[in-house]
Amino acid sequence: MNDLGDAFNAAWHLLVGPDPALAGIVGLSLQVSLLAVLLAAIPGLPLGALLAVRRFPGRGVVVAVANAMMGLPPVVAGLVLYLLLSRSGPLGRFGLLFTPGAMVLAQAVLVAPILVALSRQALEALWEEYEEQLRSFGAGPGQAVRTLLWEGRFTLLTVLLAGFGRAAAEVGAVMIVGGNIEGYTRTMTTAIALETSKGDLPLALALGGVLLAVVLVVNGLAQLLRGAALQAAR
Amino acid sequence: MAHALPLRLNALRYAVGATEIIRGITLELRDGAPSLLVGPNGAGKSVLLRLLHGLLQPTGGALEWANPSGRPPGLGPRDAMVFQRPVLLRRSVLANAAYPLRLLGHSRAEAALRAEAALERVGLGRLLHRPARRLSGGEQQRLALARAWALAPEVLFLDEPTAALDPAASKSVEAIVVAIAASGTKVVMTTHDLAQARRLGGEVLFLHHGRVLERAESQAFFAGPRTEEAAAFLRGELFW
User: By CA distance, what is A152's nearest residue in B?
Assistant: First the structure.
């Protein structure tokens, strides 16, 4: 109980008092997660759309793999990336290990299957509605994918938020490939894990509160954006 | 100019599993006044239209356009189709009408120009920038017609374009269909509104159980159908 009270107190002071260290951690967390979502969306959303509009041999396998990979344990993803990025690994020469870049990559790997699977599902429903009309216009697969991505933009924003949620909440992979280096690769979640292991539970809880607030603000802003865009376009 | 018509159907069949929906239709569709496909629900009208438009592939027989390679560039597509419930994109009225033109490779400016002209013709010139899905049912169907008309197709297939509309909206859609036919596009339309078929004139093709049982000039068909089924249909006594 005391811990909780202290946590609220600490969280309040962290939020209202200017704390450059915390601002740095929050900034890095946001930057890494948003970049990871962007990096995952570039192939993820078009692939989801393509799976929605095309029937090809092996499609079922791709869909099943994407669905299964949504449950990929972050530590496993982190470990594999660690091996790939470590100095003796195939991607070692890029010197990415223990940098924010590696964290972006790790989160993108975790987010991409979510974007593929959820966008495929959402756009498949849309495709049922649009297929005949678009085929009547003579739209090819590429044109159909582009059209569906634009027509489904409001739903896809929710898909992106789901991806962002996964990225922002993730700790195992960024811990392994980022190394939790203070002032360089320390994010909200790795800081919480560290403070918990140090026994500073109030600070850990306070950081948790700040993380929740950040996620809430991002979702709220996205919701507002979605509402405004929907109002204008529908 | 390479004309796509006549369109020849030779023992055209379409089946889903063991169920035959189109059971061997042989006929020739020529340029000229609208061809109206009438018949009871389930006769195969909409399926036939989709076969002609290429959305479905025949399971038997043949379907041959006079010029299968299509029309020369700049003349628009060989054929276009408007559905009973058109799918409108989540964009403005103008962007909807311009969309298929953009797919065909027209520049943004050219597509907008042609789309706007077609929208003016159907009376939607003042709603260019309104979100298309906010239009009324009648306006949506007029937009779908403008979208197809802007393409200047040689043949336009219309699948029950007024079935979901109130009488006033039906009337305005009908006037547009007449104008499209007058502009030189061959109209092939399904309807089960007999009064409408009578008003639109042209020729009537009476479908029943996947076959064309009767084909006649509209006036002649309504004055004296030759088959017992068509006569029963006109009396409102023919059911699927």
Answer: B90
Number of residues assigned to chain A? 234
Assign domain B7-234 one CATH number from 3.60.70.12, 3.30.540.10, 2.40.50.100, 3.40.50.300: 3.40.50.300
Name the amino acid, one letter, at B108. Answer: R
Chain A residues inside the 8 Å CB shell of B100: 137-138
Question: What digits encode the pLDDT tens for the residues A162-206?
Answer: 999 999 999 999 999 999 999 999 999 999 999 999 988 888 888
Instruction: Write down the residue that tokens 């559905």 correspond to.
Output: B83
Please give the Cα distance from A108 to A105 (Å, whole number): 5
From chain B residues 25-64, the ones with a CB under 8 A of any chain A CB are 53, 55
Min Cα–Cα distance to chain A from B198, Å: 28
Give the single-character DSSP code of B87: P
- Which residue on chain B is closest to A144 by alpha carbon? B103
* A6, amino acid identity: D
Q: Is A125 on the interface with B (CB under 8 A)?
A: no
**A14 or A119, which is more confident?**
A119
> Domain coordinates of chain A in residue numbers?
21-190
ipTM score: 0.92
All residue ranges of chain B with pLDDT < 50 are 1
User: Where exactly are the structural domains of chain B?
Assistant: 7-234
* CATH class given for the domain over A21-190: mainly alpha
The pLDDT tens digits of the residues spanning B48-65 come to 999 999 999 999 999 999
Q: With an 8 Å Cβ cutoff, are A136 and B53 in contact? A: yes
Tokens 């969309």 — which residue? B99
Q: Which two tokens stand for residue B129?
A: 């920038």
